[in-house]
Amino acid sequence: MRWALPLTLAVGAAILTGLTDRIRASVESPYPLFPTAGYAPLRASMDCSGLIVAGAGEIALEVPFKRGETISDVLSKLELDSAEAQALVDELAKYADLRRLRPRDRYAAIQEPGTGLRAFELTLDGVGRAAVELAPGGWKSEWRPFSRRRQVRRVKGTLEDSLEGALRTAGADPAVAYRMAEVLQWDLDFTRDLRQGDTFEVLYEVVYLDGDYHSLGEILALSYANRGTTLEAYRYGEGDTHGYYDAEGRPLRKMFLRSPMRYSRVTSRFSNRRFHPVLKRYRPHYGVDYGAPTGTPVRVTANGVVVSAGWSGGGGRTVKVRHPSGYVTWYLHLSKFAKSVRAGQRVRQGDVVGFVGSSGLATGSHLDYRVQKNGQWIDPLSLRSAPAEPVKREEMPSYLAERDRLRRALLGEGIYELPVDQRAEFTVAAVEDGGRPSGGS
Question: Which domains does the chain have, with CATH numbers?
């Protein structure tokens, strides 16, 4: 037929264009390692404020409640409708006074793509665990009091292909990578800064319930050597007042996160003259593109107030957030907005404001992240911000003593002992290479 050849040529041209765009994106990316696995809702931590998802056979990460946070606050992050949320609350209320949750109480949620929440666990510290699972006919629950035991493990490794792979090779749960990303998120962009040959040492907790390995606890200390610089982090403080500090007592937390997503890949950088893949002409690109699958959660990078959440021409669904000191961040091409995001809403660093998509003028699923300073566009990858207040002078002796205890354990020179009031509850063991106990008490 006469139209067969033109149609074949058109299809071939479209395929070639797509391949060209992919090659250009790959070449432009500074990421030198094999690409990190794409976002998978069954294995990733969705945000640093506590929305946790895990797949069958995997260990869910337990997250403590923040001071003043309610079970309703947590369920709103899961985007349950009011009827589902109330049914889940009714099940949990059989076992716990939900008005008296404490920062040391923890929760974990398990979701599946397309089906929503599958299971939810509420752990009352030192008491027991309520497990609620979706079954035909509604939520089913059970209560189990437990003896809780915590071990301290040490793992060290070298990056060859990915951080998860290095942890697995060293004998640790690959999910430790997510905890490491949380601790270093202000200084190390895990989407572009990691390099082959990086080395790390991590001191972290694992939690056992009735003798069974249940979940990852907190990272206690961390050392990561990257491109000639060694980053150190030491946990200090109790409950919701704890934080991570460097060797000199300076906090790791800063005004801006290094990246709006935990695991993705930079596909296009800030430029005054970039070839637009849709418009087919050169024009400025005032942001950084992060390639990621549709539905990947997008985190706001600093505390602020939402300016707008709506359609913005070629940017598609866009969220704009105003921050102190004249900063405004933009999040473009979203597939949808987070349920509670609206103009005037206050958001905290790490809150999910939307989900990756390809709305507007976009050839594929990605986030275009932009930053303005006093109305002028600036390169997000060059953004640096001042840290929060350091450890108070009167607390420095206590901090330095704790740092030294953690550092010795991190280097394998001793066993880290938990505070006296926790020793009866927790068994402590330093573990070389993630799996073989070298001692305990």
Answer: 63-145 (3.10.450.350), 148-253+389-437 (3.10.450.350), 265-382 (2.70.70.10)
